[in-house]
Each structure stands twice: as C-alpha cells, then as structure tokens.
Write a structure and sequence with these properties.
395 residues, alpha/beta, Rossmann fold, 6-stranded parallel beta sheet, 3-stranded antiparallel beta sheet, elongated
Length: 395
C-alpha cells in the first residue's frame, strides 16, 4: 500500500534479528534507516568473504540489509543523544527499534519514556534474548539449545543439532513484523503509540506446540530424524540419483501408492491404516527404500504427482534457485559503485512496493553512507559541522 511509503523506521540494529525485521519492513516500502556505532558498527559487516573490495561490506551483512539507509551515531555521549532526538523529530520517525541489552536503554537515551517525550505517538520496539528484565546475552544457537529446538532436531540417539536456518532470529523477526503491524493499526485508530518488548526466547518457545503439549500428556518427545513420529510413510528415501522426501498423510494416499505396480509388495493388511504403518515403520521404510533405490528421483516424482501423493526431490540450494517458480520471484540488488549484483529469496508475499520496483532493491548501504545526506539535508548541519562530528567520532 502507498501509505507505507510515508512511514520511517530508525533502527539501532546489528546481527540478524533486527536487520531481518527491518529488511522485511523495507519490502513494504517503509523507509528504513539503520543506526550503528561510528567505531564498532555492525559486527556482521565483517563476516563472510569480501564482496565489493571494501571494508565492512562482507557477504554475510549483504544478505538482509538491502533497501536501507545507514547512519553512524555515538549514543554514548550527550551530543549523540541530542542528535538522536533531533533525528526522531525531523525525520518524523514512526518506529524506533533496537536490539541492545536492556541495561543500555537509559544509558544511551533510547528507552521508551525518553523517546515518547520526543514524539508522543512513537512505536518503540525492543528485541532481547530473554525479555526486558534480563541482560543475559543471547545468540541464535543458544536460544535453539535452551528452547528445546535442538533437542527435537537431529537423528534419533545421536547428538542434538542446530537447525539449518536461524529460526530464533528470523522467527522473532516475523513475530516482530506482526506486532508492529498491530501497533500501526492501533495508532491509526487511537492515535497512541506503543512500547513492544519481544523476547527471542519466548518467540522460540512458541514453535514448540506439539512437543510441549504431548510432553505434558506424558509422551517422551525427542529427536526422530527424517521419519515422522505420527504419520507413515513420511521420510527421506534414496533414489538411483539422489534423494526424495515422500509424505503419505492418510490411508487413501497409501492405497493410491500401493495400487502402483512397483509398490504392490507393500499392499498388506497391517499397513492399511496409519496406526499399523507407524507400528512397523522401520520395516516399512526399508521396503519402500528397496523400491525407490531402483528409480530416479524424476521418475518417482512423476508417478506420485500423477496419483496426488506429495513428494519432492531434496534440492541443493543452487537447484532451488534455478527452479522456474523461484527464479521469477527472486529479489536482486546491484551496487552502483562496483557493479556487484546480489540475489535474495522472494518476500513471503508480493507487495505493491516490490512490484513497483520490479523486485530490484537498492544495494545494502555502506558504513555511514547516508551521514552527509541526512545530517546535512535533514538536520541542516554544514559540511564543517559534519566533519567535526566525524573527527570527534560522534558520527
């Protein structure tokens, strides 16, 4: 919607959880300005290989920072805090976001009460590891470990494993996106701002629906590998040229499967119900694997698609990116300086802004790239004053 273009987010952000949240908001056309310390900056800028041949523009940082502007500002000094308040007024900031530890809020002048006094209807968002009353540091794998996500991930009777993506980080970002949209609606209706504290730990726990409920009912829930605990056959099966994941979700689909000549040997009375298949799942999976191992992934996919039973090749990342359904919705950004082009996965939904931009976003900003633009044009500082602020490491 066009109204999102009139919104501005000022985000004191680093690492993943908050940069991914503001990246998602940028897909709606919201103006995102990321704030970083003028000396230390976002540590993720230094992670991964050097893509454009410049400091603080490494690959890991580029993944979730397209379509933003970047300022540097030292909030540890009174002048920096005064500049922050000026930014909030002059930029008419709608959302201020931070993933600093709570103990730093008042010290940096970024607590809700301070910023509400500057702009009464501001929406304040704080992402923390364990809530606003805790200063315990947290990284995604720590949250995976403590929330139980690792306990339910991996092969049975093997060591716990981290997920292939940082779900506590990115899951918190998605929860934050929803909370901010609710806060914007509340403000539109009532004229009031909001103070939102989001715990990454609580966000991570919210994904543990089945493990929590079943554990409370007396079941032991732990790692099960690729084979589903409650439905069969749902597992990974080797083919003659790779792997597929087969998902038979009900007895009708099973009957369709064993009606095919290659699986006739598995058409047994004890396998007619899901309960019977689960009770003998190891032997069942072994029998299926003996068949799939003699056929290519494409042959099996064609067969199962013809009988409407879910199946998929287990694709490598390059194969996913080459998928025709993916290629047409990929996002991209090109560096106007070096000409380096990066690609990014599609947004969860096609927004009017992305449509208007033809899915081409501005390149992730360099460290302090927009200092002169915003401090000069918005706050009205002269070139000499900006140079002074830079030399004294205030910006």
């Amino acid at each position: 919607m066009k109204i999102f273009k009139d919104l501005t987010v000022l985000s004191l952000e680093q690492a993943t959880v908050l940069p991914y949240l503001t990246y998602r908001l940028a897909h709606d056309g919201i103006k995102i300005i990321r704030l970083e310390h003028p000396v230390y900056g976002d540590p993720n800028r230094l992670v991964g290989h050097n893509v454009v041949g410049e400091e603080r523009m490494n690959a890991y940082y580029l993944c979730i920072n397209a379509c933003k502007k970047a300022l540097t500002l030292n909030l540890g000094v009174p002048e920096g805090q005064e500049i922050l308040r000026s930014l909030i007024k002059k930029l008419n900031v709608d959302i201020f976001a931070t993933n600093q530890l709570p103990k730093n809020y008042q010290k940096l002048g970024i607590d809700y009460d301070t910023l509400k006094a500057v702009k009464h209807d501001i929406i304040w968002f704080g992402a923390t590891g364990f809530g606003p009353d805790s200063n315990e540091p947290a990284y995604d794998p720590i949250l995976q470990a403590r929330s139980g996500l690792m306990e339910v991930t991996g092969e049975k009777e093997r060591a716990p494993m981290v997920l292939g993506i940082p779900l506590p980080d990115m899951g918190t970002s998605e929860h934050g996106y929803g909370l901010l949209m609710k806060a914007l609606y509340k403000r539109a209706v009532t004229g009031e701002g909001s103070c939102i504290n989001l715990s990454m730990f609580e966000s991570s726990l919210s994904w543990m629906t089945v493990p929590f409920t079943l554990t409370g009912l007396g079941r032991t829930i732990s790692r099960r590998g690729n084979t589903h605990e409650f439905f069969a056959p749902l597992s990974v099966f080797k083919t003659s040229d790779g792997y597929v994941y087969l998902a038979v979700g009900n007895d009708r689909q099973w009957k369709s499967m064993v009606s095919q000549d290659m699986f006739k040997s598995l058409d047994k009375p004890k396998y007619e119900t899901n309960k019977g298949r689960i009770e003998d799942v190891l032997n069942l999976n072994h029998g299926i694997a003996e068949v799939t191992n003699n056929h290519t992934s494409d042959e099996l996919i064609e067969l199962f698609n013809s009988i409407t039973v879910p199946i998929s090749k287990i694709s490598t990342v390059p194969e996913v990116m080459a998928d025709p359904l993916v290629k047409k919705v990929m996002l991209s950004a090109e560096d106007p300086v070096s000409g380096v082009k990066i690609v990014m996965p599609p947004s969860p939904h096609m927004t009017p802004f992305l449509e208007e931009m033809n899915r081409k976003l501005s390149f992730p900003p360099r460290f302090g790239e927009h200092n002169r633009e915003i401090y000069g044009e918005v706050l009205g500082y002269s070139t000499a004053e900006i140079d002074r602020l830079r030399e004294t490491k205030i910006i």
